[in-house]
């Protein structure tokens, strides 16, 4: 399942063969397999702002997860039951994940940034029988537990002794033996349930088998230039509740023996990101495009912070040429853009070391995955035509189904092609360019306009920190291009600046793509994964 040694992209594509064993358990390969041979090997390091950084070894991870698995069994949790994790990046999150996989239950990661309604929706839809959270998460659950018939257990990380109805995580671990017989699981046995980000509609619960981790290894090694290499140590600001944080970083790194750096912050801070990478000697990072754009505000980072990166990957939204070029100069490495989604992740990407790198393009199919640009019926389109980015099944990173939603699962496919809902085009060299979500494409005066290229052009303007582009209904043109702008520090909204920004796009792209309307906003609505929720911006535009 690992990426074979190869001297060229073509050679890797031609020689790759999937080899996933009939017995495969995520908890075993990210914990016990290493603990058996290298129990003192560090697997996790936690950054603390007061510099009291902590470490956890594979031996400790194996023992503590085994004790927690025994605790779950004692509580009556059974194979296939869903256990929710409402936690930040911390050791307890990893211990809980591993314990859940070992006992054959299903992990349901949830972001602490979710409000009460979002949490209730996900807990109810999943039928979660238990939830592990901290004191902050407990406030989010206030009043919810009694309305959720399936939720039987609330497990609390921390020292909140007077939390009614909750049991303490540490007490459960200490009360049970650290010996546990891992439940035998196959690649297709459910291991993980992740809700989609809900950028275009109600979130759906994508169920993944244990094979999903094996399927992510080639993409991880592709983007991180044949990882693991001596000295590799990885960090991401992305929440581990997101597929990007969990499957692009945490689990693959643990399986490959690469130490993972965790950090406590829930809100991204650019200065802190550079400090973490410097103090923790981070060599590899996964940083979403929105975070990279925010990091541009930090002046002269290579002089101010002693970081030494070997690889950086990015995914979640289009990176764009402007951010790509800035990152290469400011970070000292070429960002390898990757592509995927909750249902089917890490299938497209770049690897500068193998010569697969092109500004404004995602990259090429990762070895082991078959990708095409297709129409709504699954017909492969010619080079240069815009269509849906599609993935051919079977594929080990592909979800099993949407939980309890057979109709939605079926609608995700056209024949053997999984339709991502993301539009792209492929060039003659095989590179795929991201155009935008199918729902995000703007129809104006007969043109179909993707927002990504315009947003990339906008953030190149010195006054623009973040930008989001949507279509606004128009009786003459069907839609006009509307740009929502968060200004960089030192700039103030004005009619003159709006005109300047419009002209900036008009002269750099085309007459039909420039934003006829520019609005200045304090913030842009983002999902917990950093993706723009254009649906909300479209609704706001239509209501005006």
From TrEMBL:
Keyword Transferase (UniProt): no
Domain AMP-dependent synthetase/ligase: 33-394
Domain AMP-binding enzyme C-terminal: start-end pairs: 453-531
Cross-referenced Pfam families: AMP-binding, AMP-binding_C
Spans traversing the lipid bilayer: none
Keyword Plastid: no
Keywords in alphabetical order: ATP-binding, Ligase, Metal-binding, Nucleotide-binding
SUPFAM superfamilies in the cross-refs: Acetyl-CoA synthetase-like
Cross-referenced PANTHER family: ACYL-COA SYNTHETASE MEDIUM CHAIN FAMILY MEMBER 3, ACYL-COENZYME A SYNTHETASE
Family: Belongs to the ATP-dependent AMP-binding enzyme family.
Name used for this protein in its record: AMP-binding protein
């Amino acid at each position: 399942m690992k990426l074979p040694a190869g001297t060229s992209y073509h050679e890797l594509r031609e020689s790759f063969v999937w080899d996933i064993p009939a017995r495969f358990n995520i908890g075993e390969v990210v914990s016990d397999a290493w603990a058996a041979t290298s129990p003192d090997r560090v697997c996790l390091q936690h950054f603390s702002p007061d510099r009291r950084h902590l470490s956890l070894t594979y031996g400790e991870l194996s023992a503590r997860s085994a004790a927690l698995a025994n605790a779950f069994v004692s509580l009556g949790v059974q194979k296939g039951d869903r256990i929710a994790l409402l936690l930040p990046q911390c050791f307890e999150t990893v211990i809980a994940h591993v314990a859940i996989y070992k006992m054959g239950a299903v992990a349901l990661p949830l972001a602490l940034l979710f409000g009460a309604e979002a949490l209730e929706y996900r807990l109810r839809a999943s039928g979660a029988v238990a939830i592990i959270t901290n004191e902050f998460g407990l406030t989010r659950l206030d009043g919810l537990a009694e309305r959720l018939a399936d939720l039987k257990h609330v497990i609390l990380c921390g020292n909140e002794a007077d939390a009614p109805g909750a049991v303490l995580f540490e007490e459960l671990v200490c009360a049970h033996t650290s010996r546990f017989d891992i439940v035998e699981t196959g690649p297709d046995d459910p291991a993980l349930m992740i809700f989609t980000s809900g950028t275009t509609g109600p979130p759906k619960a994508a169920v993944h088998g244990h094979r999903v981790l094996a399927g992510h290894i080639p993409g991880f090694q592709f983007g991180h230039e044949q990882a693991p290499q001596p000295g590799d140590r990885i960090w991401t600001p992305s929440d581990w509740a997101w597929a990007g944080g969990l499957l692009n970083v945490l689990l693959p790194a643990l399986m490959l023996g690469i130490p993972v750096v965790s950090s406590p912050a829930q809100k991204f801070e650019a200065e802190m990101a550079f400090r973490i990478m410097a103090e923790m000697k981070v060599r590899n990072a996964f940083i979403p495009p929105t975070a990279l754009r925010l990091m541009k505000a930090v002046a002269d980072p290579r002089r101010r912070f002693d970081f030494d990166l070997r690889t950086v990957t990015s995914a979640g939204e289009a990176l764009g040429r402007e951010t790509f070029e800035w990152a290469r100069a400011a970070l000292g490495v070429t960002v390898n853009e990757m592509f995927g989604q909750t249902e089917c992740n890490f299938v497209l990407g770049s690897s500068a070391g193998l010569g697969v790198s092109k500004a404004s393009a995602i990259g090429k199919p990762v070895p082991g995955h078959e990708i095409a640009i297709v129409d709504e019926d699954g017909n492969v389109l010619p080079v240069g035509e815009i269509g849906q980015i599609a993935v051919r099944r079977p594929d080990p990173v592909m979800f099993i189904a949407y939980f309890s939603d057979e109709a939605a699962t079926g609608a995700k496919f056209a024949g053997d092609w999984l339709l991502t809902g993301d539009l792209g085009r492929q060039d003659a060299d095989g590179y795929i360019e991201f155009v935008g979500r199918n729902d995000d494409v703007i129809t104006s005066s007969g043109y179909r306009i993707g927002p990504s290229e315009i947003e990339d052009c906008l953030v190149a303007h010195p006054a623009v920190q973040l930008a989001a582009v949507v279509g606004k209904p128009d009786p003459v043109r069907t839609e006009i291009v509307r740009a929502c702008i968060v200004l960089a520090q030192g700039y103030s909204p004005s009619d003159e600046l709006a005109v300047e920004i419009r002209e900036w796009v008009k002269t750099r792209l085309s007459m039909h793509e420039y934003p006829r309307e520019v609005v200045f906003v304090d913030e842009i609505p983002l999902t917990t994964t950093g993706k723009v929720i254009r649906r909300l911006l479209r609704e706001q535009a239509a209501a005006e």
